[in-house]
Amino acid sequence: MPLPRLRLVALAAGAALLLTPLAPAGAAEPGSLDALAAAQGRRFGTAVDDAGLADPAYTTVAAREFGRVTPANAMKWDAVEPRQGAFSFARGDALVDFARAHGQQVRGHTLVWHSQLPGWVAALPAAQVRGAMENHIAQVAGHWKGKIHTWDVVNEPFNDDGTFRTTSPFYAAMGEDYIAYAFRAARAADPDAKLYLNDYNTEGSGAKADAMYRLASRLKAQGVPLDGVGFQVHLATQYGFPYGMQANLQRFADLGLDVAITELDVRMPLPVDAAKTAVQNDYYRRAVEACLGVTRCESVTVWDFTDKYSWVPSAFPGQGSAALYDEQYRPKAAYDAVRQALGGGTTPPDTRAPSAPVGLTATAAGATSATLAWQAATDDTGVTGYDVYRDGARVGSAAATSYTDTGLSPSTAYRWTVRARDAAGNVSAASAEATATTAPGGGGAPGLVVQHRVNDQSATDNQIKPGLRLVNRGGAAADLSRVTLRYWFTGDGGSSSFSAWCDYAAVGCGAVREKVVALPAGRPGADHYLEVSFASGSLAAGASTGEIQLRVNKTDWSAFTEADDHSYRVASSYADAPKVTAYVDGVLVHGIEP
Ligand code: 9MR
Known about the structure:
With about 600 residues, this protein is of the alpha/beta class.
């Protein structure tokens, strides 16, 4: 998101344009779906579920593209009043905070619905249901008073044939009157919120739409504070597009009501293919066009924008791909179809590179490796990784903001830079250079490197089984009697005495000594290390000890949790292991201690 700024806010069509300082009136990020909708006096929104709020890739798109958010579940009755009188607003508050932080409106969903309704409501004596419902509305709409643009006051009152859902505890207790009671209670609790009826399969003409039309007409005639009717528009490529959608929406508008598309998505039987995709694109486009064709259709909301959090696969096994973005947040053709329907072009190509990483530091870690760290770069679509350059050549990449460069020569000065990348492959300028000089190889044996692999089946059983190899990349032979290796781990409770074993060594287990040493004070990822030393021998320049298969257990055979151990790597084949350290005469010559 850009920094807070003055925003041009387009009100409903026909109204004047106002310049307001950061009014919570829509994200309207230039080029976004909401900005395109705002240019036509509408809002473009999305459902947001709790899981998405914890996913930075999700929140980046949610904040950028949408001007209104609907909590997919967080404001439903079972979330806010799971037991009578025990209210819990934390999940809804999180969504409201997110929306306000990004200048978005909130569509409250939903106050009175037969579904996701805790059992205690249906168990009440009929005479107590109205009081419970009105109290629920007073508490919930009262809690978020002034922060909700629109409330779905009553959701899904009808069966598909247009008869009332008589099995709803509210209808069962009060008959149709529950709807008027609910709207009056909502108006009293939050006088500024727009109050909506909302249902599905009412978007095209038919018995259910007619029933909704008659209900809306009756409520208007009775002076019930009904402001609008929401049409969910959950579509599927295997069924036809709802018949006469625009005309149907228009007749509700003609009653003096606002209308909105509140839960748009277009699912398909999997697998995806070109024909189904073409139908999906067409349905998304026509739904948006139907709304734009009705002056009082004030918003389109999609029922989540990414397949990653779509409700479809669990509700309709074998169906999916219903959203505008795929699970990796790549916009689909349907996204372009919606853009075009809104009067925009296709997705503008992402040509903006991330900012250059700053704060790069390099620290030599012994004779053959160095650790680099830097601050996160920023990007309009999100940074996806970093490339690390040593002396001008790319040597590796990192997903986060640190990197260990290995295979260096002792007593050598190196220069590093780092560049950030985004999903479209845009690469930032290089960071400022950082330099470091590796340590001299100890004891006349420069270039010792430890390699490691995991010989264990399980990282949570009662043994740690590292495989180690010592490689001499220096130019002179190394005296093995002066070399020690340390594999750093945590004991993880249980007995504090250990047994260490050599199961196999190419140089012979007789030539290898192993013991477990306790640290005087715990360090991150280690309170012990397995020390390996050699009785005698010489490792020629360019040579390797070959494999040394080691094993550690506690004397009570209790289990370890290895994944958090400093030296642990998920690796079934040998590679340089900077977190398994090597020493000559006790001086670190390879790797990084915890
Ligand atoms: O998206 C919601 C999903 O996470 C829930 O499991 C489901 C349970 O009923 O409700 C989904 O949202 C529904 C919305 O509240 C009302 N219209 C239909 C939506 C899709 O089922």
